[in-house]
């Protein structure tokens, strides 16, 4: 049977950008990060109770996991939780590709277990899910989640694990003011009804919902996210202006409001952090209670923007 129930902080910390090397064209975000700077991020996060770190083998093809392990090395393993992922699209052709990818992740992370292990994309639920069972039984992974899965795929994965006395305890999908596919497909309701934690990623749409960027001040040229978002910034202006105004009333930023919205919807946002100052925003967001009419207004403005920010790796929910 499963170990104790999955318990996590209100906000998880994303390290997708930690896989960037900082060289132009080498990474999704074009981030220039230093070991010292990331250690500062970790220290501030840990002292504020943000102790769940989300990474993946595919982020920088292992670089994110390696960098994260170095940044956490002064902490005892029991002081933080690690969340990483098996990505079917890069699976090897050995006898047990899931165990192989996990071992490589454990090696890079410098640990002998992962608190939360995800099937990253639903390439073949019936094929990959059973391979998690021996890893749960051995304690190499403590809890299982599925990412980018639709309702039928979540139910199938849960049924397969259930036959061995385990269950899908978490779902991680792209979910933001601009992209509410999981809500419309009934996945949020399913998670509430079955006591499954829903993790929302891309809550800030890679910076497009932080209020920092506008047609006059676009995202950094040459980054993959600039290619996706810069052309839609004009359509987002009314929404980000309103988020900025709502934040200003509370001494907070538009980004804090986006995170507070995801919290108000009952989700656990995964927020990418690359600077210690980002943690101040998470503390503020955690303290913001949005009124029902504010949530409705933001969602109406987001719908009116008429954009589709579904990632190239996602299928429709």
Automatic annotation (TrEMBL):
<dbReference type="GO" id="GO:0016491">
    <property type="term" value="F:oxidoreductase activity"/>
</dbReference>
<dbReference type="Pfam" id="PF00248">
    <property type="entry name" value="Aldo_ket_red"/>
</dbReference>
<feature type="domain" description="NADP-dependent oxidoreductase">
    <location>
        <begin position="11"/>
        <end position="302"/>
    </location>
</feature>
<keyword id="KW-0560">Oxidoreductase</keyword>
<dbReference type="InterPro" id="IPR050523">
    <property type="entry name" value="AKR_Detox_Biosynth"/>
</dbReference>
<dbReference type="InterPro" id="IPR036812">
    <property type="entry name" value="NAD(P)_OxRdtase_dom_sf"/>
</dbReference>
<dbReference type="GO" id="GO:0005829">
    <property type="term" value="C:cytosol"/>
</dbReference>
<dbReference type="InterPro" id="IPR023210">
    <property type="entry name" value="NADP_OxRdtase_dom"/>
</dbReference>
<protein>
    <submittedName>
        <fullName>Aryl-alcohol dehydrogenase-like predicted oxidoreductase</fullName>
    </submittedName>
</protein>
<dbReference type="InterPro" id="IPR020471">
    <property type="entry name" value="AKR"/>
</dbReference>
């Amino acid at each position: 049977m499963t170990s104790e129930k999955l318990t996590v902080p209100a906000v998880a910390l994303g390290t997708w950008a930690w896989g960037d090397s900082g060289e132009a064209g080498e990474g999704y975000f074009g981030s220039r990060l230093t070991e010292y700077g990331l250690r500062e991020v970790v220290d501030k996060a840990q002292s504020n109770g943000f102790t769940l770190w989300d990474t993946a083998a595919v982020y920088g093809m292992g670089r994110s996991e390696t960098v994260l392990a170095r940044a956490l090395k002064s902490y005892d393993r029991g002081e933080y939780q690690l969340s990483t992922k098996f990505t079917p699209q890069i699976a090897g052709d050995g006898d047990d590709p899931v165990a192989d990818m996990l071992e490589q992740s454990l090696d890079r992370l410098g640990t002998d277990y992962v608190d939360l292990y995800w099937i990253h994309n639903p390439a073949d639920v019936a094929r990959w899910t059973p391979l998690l069972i021996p890893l749960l039984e051995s304690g190499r992974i403590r809890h299982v989640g599925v990412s980018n899965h639709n309702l039928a795929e979540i139910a199938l994965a849960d049924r397969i694990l259930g036959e061995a006395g385990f269950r899908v305890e978490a779902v991680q999908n792209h979910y933001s003011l601009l992209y509410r596919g999981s809500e419309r497909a009934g996945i949020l309701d399913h998670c509430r009804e079955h006591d499954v934690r829903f993790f929302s990623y891309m809550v800030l749409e890679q910076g497009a919902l932080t209020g920092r960027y506008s047609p006059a001040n676009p995202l950094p040229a040459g980054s993959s996210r600039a290619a996706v978002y810069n052309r839609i910034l004009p359509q987002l202006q009314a929404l980000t202006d309103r988020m900025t105004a709502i934040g200003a009333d509370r001494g907070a930023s538009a980004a804090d409001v986006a995170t507070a919205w995801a919290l108000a919807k009952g989700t656990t946002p995964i927020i990418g952090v690359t600077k210690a100052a980002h943690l101040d925003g998470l503390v503020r967001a955690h303290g913001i209670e949005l009124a029902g009419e504010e949530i409705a207004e933001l969602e109406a403005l987001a719908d009116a923007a008429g954009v589709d920010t579904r990632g190239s790796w996602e299928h429709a929910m």
